[in-house]
């Protein structure tokens, strides 16, 4: 009697199908985690900029020059050494910082669904620093 060793084509097909199902479940989850981490990083950066603006105002007695132009505000804060030049890069693809009435926000208006889902996972305090997010149940 000859013993057959190895796997049949059917067994290999079933294993590959199971692996494909697992990958289909895990890959979107991984990208959602990445979007969430980038958005939380942006919110933290916005807080850092906001704190630097407040510190500048308290030390100098006036607002940072630049009005609502975030690029000019970042340049002025960096020049005055309230921010590091390497700490002013936005992390989330396509997001922008917006200054409105002296407050800094992360603007995610029009970004893809992954960033919008990440917005829904933020705390209330973090969502208050984001513009353009739509809260869904």
Task: Offer a few descriptive terms.
3-stranded mixed beta sheet; mainly alpha; 137 residues
What is the strand and helix layout of this fold?
Blueprint: H1 9-60, H2 70-79, E1 96-100, E2 103-107, H3 113-120, H4 124-127, E3 130-131
Question: What does this protein look like?
Answer:
Helices cover about 55% and strands about 10% of the residues. The chain has about 140 residues and is mainly α. Helix 1 (about 10-60) packs across helix 3 (about 115-120). The chain is elongated and about 95 Å long. The model has no long low-confidence stretch (mean pLDDT about 85).
How would you sum up this structure in a few lines?
With 137 residues, this protein is mostly helical.
Can you write the helix and strand succession as a string?
HHEEHHE
Radius of gyration: 23 Å
**Total of DSSP H or I helical runs spanning 4+ residues:** 4
Percent of residues in helices: 40-55%
Query: Mind summarizing the main beta sheet?
Result: 3 strands, mixed
Total strand count, please?
3
* Strand order within the widest beta sheet: 1-2-3
Distance between the termini: 64 Å
């Amino acid at each position: 009697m000859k013993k057959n060793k190895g796997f049949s084509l059917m067994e290999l097909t079933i294993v590959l199908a199971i692996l494909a199902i697992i990958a289909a479940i895990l890959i979107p989850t991984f990208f959602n985690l990445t979007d969430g981490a980038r958005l939380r990083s942006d919110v933290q950066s916005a807080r850092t900029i906001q704190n630097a603006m407040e510190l500048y105002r308290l030390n100098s007695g006036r607002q940072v020059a630049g009005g609502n132009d975030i690029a000019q505000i970042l340049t002025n804060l960096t020049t005055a050494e309230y921010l590091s030049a390497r700490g002013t890069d936005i992390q989330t693809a396509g997001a922008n910082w917006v200054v409105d009435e002296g407050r800094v926000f992360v603007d995610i208006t029009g970004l893809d669904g992954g960033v919008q889902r990440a917005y829904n996972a933020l705390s209330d305090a973090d969502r208050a620093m984001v513009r353009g997010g739509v809260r869904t149940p």
